[in-house]
Amino acid sequence: VGTLYVVATPIGNLQDLTVRARDVLSRVTLLAAEDTRVSSGLMRHIGAQPRMLAVHEHNERAAAEKLLQHLQAGEDVALVSDAGTPGISDPGARVVAAMHQAGVRVEPLPGPSAVVTALSASGFERTAFRFIGFLPPKHNARLEAIRALSDATELLVLYEAPHRILDCMQDLLTGLGAAREVVVCRELTKTFETIRRGTLGELLPWMQADPNQQRGEFVIVLDGAPERVSEGLEEEQERVLQILLAELP
Ligand code: SAM
Fold first, then answer.
1. Where is the Tetrapyrrole methylase domain positioned along the sequence (predicted)?
2. How far apart are the CA of 138 and the centre of ligand 1, in A?
3. pLDDT of 154 strictly over 90
4. Which one, of 126, 144, 127, 124, lies nearest residue 135 by Cα?
5. Minimal CA–CA distance to 118: which of 162, 156, 145, 80?
6. Mean pLDDT of 114-125
7. How would you label 4-21 residue by residue, b for 16+ Cβ within 10 Å and e otherwise?
8. Which of 10, 106, 156, 235 could share a disulfide with 222, CB 3.0–4.6 Å?
9. pTM over 0.80
10. Could you tell me if residue 95 is left (phi over 0), alpha (psi between -120 and 50 degrees) or otherwise beta?
């Protein structure tokens, strides 16, 4: 039985392809790719010519069946998405689940992912984060989703497309307030990479004023809501205060 390699690929800068990814992509004879045209470019870049099978949102189950046949016949397969890590706001989960079910070995090759790249450059000290991926595309549903997240104390990581970035920032400001700290990461690892930190109240007008800041791919990292002092702690503080008051002259 072959192995399914889940291979992360660059999110912009081709030099971010790992040595191991290059080795595996050059060696496998079958590539499961989100969009075969996109992956052909990467294969050309490394001089590899595997056969390709498209695995996208609409055919993932059927594609998993086909891949399983090849793996069970002893062929190794690499799974890639258009950019970054498969399965992270990208197809891949169904294929991987099918392999687990069939007892096929799944070997991940770590590498670029926009979520971790953005977090590493955000400078927030909290450890816990919630990866949201894409919010709903329509205004009402998006604002509702944002409001439902407004009390979360973890960092929030969002993906957004250029044609919705302004509307999304506007809804974030409405739902979370102008004082919420945010880091906007645009075009990570690419020529026009921009990483800017401020409050929503500062960054929305900055983005509105410059059409260049509305182009490309975006990750938005938001600080979490302030931790609420728990009631238990308030009671404890009250108890200590009473003791201190009783002892004070
Ligand atoms: N699987 C990918 C990953 O591991 O990050 C994510 C795929 S998702 C369909 C594409 C979204 O990821 C983009 O709309 C954008 O929000 C984010 N993204 C991908 N590459 C990026 C980059 N170079 N800079 C900023 N955001 C990026």
1. 3-203
2. 20
3. yes
4. 144
5. 156
6. 98
7. bbbbbbbbbeeebbbeeb
8. 156
9. yes
10. alpha
CA 9 – ligand 1 centroid, Å: 11
Ligand 1 pocket: which of 219, 220, 221 to mutate (most atoms within 8 A of CB): 219
- Please tell me the total number of residues recorded for the chain in this structure: 249
Closest residue (by CA) to atom 19 of ligand 1? 114
Nearest CA to ligand 1 atom 8: 89
> Rounded to 5, what percent of the chain is helix, strand, coil?
45, 20, 35
Report the pocket of ligand 1 as residue ranges, CB < 6 Å: 11-12, 81, 83-85, 88-90, 113-115, 159-161, 185, 187-190, 217-219
For 183-218, give one letter per residue: b (16+ CB within 10 A) or e: bbbbbbbeeeebbebebbeebbeebeeeeebbebbb
Dihedral, 112, 114, 120, 121 alpha carbons, nearest 10: 120
Strands 194-199 and 181-186: antiparallel
Tell whether the model's pLDDT for residue 113 goes beyond 90. Answer: yes
